[in-house]
Amino acid sequence: MAQTSEPEGQAASVLEDVVVTSTRRSSTTKDTPAGVAAVGGEAIEEAQAFSFEAFARLNPSVQTNSRGIGDNQIIVRGISSSGKPTVGLYFDETILTGIGLDGGSDNQPNIQLHDVARVEILKGPQGTLFGASSMSGTVRIITNKPDLDTLSGGFTASTASVSDGNAFHQGEAYVNLPLIEDRLAVRAVAWADSGGGYIDRVGPIAAENVNDQTVTGGRIIAQARLTDRISVTGTILRQDQEVEGPQYFEFDQGAYRTTSPTVENFEDSSNIYSLVADIDLDFGTLTASTSLLKRDMTLLRDSTPTARRFGIPGVLAYSQGQELSNWSSELRLASTLNGPLQYVVGGFYSKQDSDTYTLAVLADPATGLAPCFTAADCRANGFATSDINSSFGSTAIEQYAVFGEAVYDLTPRLKATAGLRYYNADILDYRVTTQRLRFPTSPVQTVDQVALDAATTEDSVSYNFALAYAASADTTLYARAASGFRPGGVNDADGAAQFGVVVPEGYSSDELWNYEVGVKSYFGDRRYYVELSAYRIDWTDQQIAVTDPGGTFVYIANAGESVVNGLEAQITARPIDGLFINFGATYTDAKLTADLPSTASAAGSDGDRIPYSPEWSYAGQISYEAPLGAEATWKVGANFNYRGESFTGFNDQDPNQARLDDYFLVNATVGLNYRDWLGTVFIDNVTDTVPEIGLRVTGDGYRVYTVRPRTVGVRLSRSF
After folding, report:
1. What 8-state DSSP symbol labels residue 613?
2. Fewer CB within 10 Å of terminal CB in the chain, N or C?
3. Is pTM, for the whole model, over 0.85?
4. Of 32, 20, 22, which Cα lies nearest the Cα of 478?
5. CA nearest 395: which of 429, 358, 432?
């Protein structure tokens, strides 16, 4: 899209180009031969869309299957399935994409979007420039960098009343501090959220508004201009998130009510360290980057429905934890030649280590508290007999890649792009069973058993081809064909083998080809900007979740083929001075084109829709700003989004099938800007809707994840 927020102060009368770096060089959205959406930092700030789930409501190009503030599955163009992530997630040069607690694409990091310049949504495979995790798209969070010359800063604080819930408070503050004029500056931002709980727990451990959240974070970016040609940027970030109880309600209990008999806390700490050097050469820019993501996450989930299915008495708490480390480095050269040829070439290395543990343990029915959180903790404190099933493991992925992409001017108006990336990864998986599934009266396992010790190697090549034709200075037509893939992996067969269930040792990579055409154009004296695109995706060897006939053990297998046909439309407009309109819509027809094998519990058939893929989605923002006296302006605005119905499985033969109903959400604001001060009254979820933004099917129903009820608040901001 061209622009999703207005400049500060009264709006300009025409639209301006939005610069993006989706091709690893500066370009505008209009001139990029691919589907690219850029949501500006001001739009994010105005909507207070700091969490990724809230951000996804601003643009229909990206969807989330959300199960709480730290548990998001990101979906672009309807490509959704079990297995590893299909969408790459970047924070500047740092890769955030990780392995979920269950080894899949869930639990993706939720670094809040404070003091960002924009968020770029790159639609379709981006494997040539962004790697294997970018099978169906890439989301890039681009932060505001230090200004070497200007002292500036600001703060925002808000408080809000949540309908039938606890008060919710948010705040952020930033400062830009030049230390050496034109040579060295630091930009720092800090943020915090607290409260906002609205889920009531009924039953033996009844309590109201149990899902209060606490989020604290901060980021420091230092930028040094060492010479006129060399600059270095360093980033340090830390964020801590905690939720005090279940983040869902049970469908059969009604909105905002759960009978969970165990305490379900969530804790998540993320740290980012990054260093980037840019060297301006006579023929291009050489960029060297290295970054480290460290994440420590603990998730408690009630597993009593599973205990009932196995006839285990009492209440069962399920504890999962992960320590994730992802170190990546890249060296690339982006040319700045005078002739018809431009190119980007580079090399990439990363090493990802993930240590995980799981524990199903009998909890105290009077308090819902688990007596221990790991098998070692249980044994050390005399609760070994409460351990019903436990394990720990590690995954190490070491990957190398080389890539290149060239753009050639065939004529003054016609450009051709060709790129490829070769990827190689060594994957080590190690799992130890510390307690095989047992009944409380069964003997306790005393010797750890190695359930999995496997090494695999994956390699693949991704391609990108595109043509862009400048029909005029304001209109670009493009066509693109690109491939993407996702690495395979291994399954843990030990638990299933205990009950005579045969699970395949592993699954291979799946791949897709994306074909699209589009047009991007300004018109009406640049008061309007439109993007239209149509695409087809052929997806083969799709990774799917398979459940054994008894409905207990889940593993990953390759099966089936799918086709996704889609349309995307975006319009940004300033039809009159002060009025800003942005609207986007997507249509996605994502279906299987071959029956799944009879061994798959999903029982998918030719023509079934792919899970979590709504056919229709749209989102928009509208605002009007006008002067109020000589030094003030007033502004009224709203943002809205619609998501059509989708399903958790392929059809009603799947025991895990459930429907996520369609929903429409709207937020509204009224603000007054006087000099450097801005006061705003806001209403989130104006219609008090209860949308189903995520589901988890259990043995006796399903759990619904939603957004806060109607929230009314005030916000005060100042900048200098």
Report:
1. -
2. C
3. yes
4. 32
5. 429
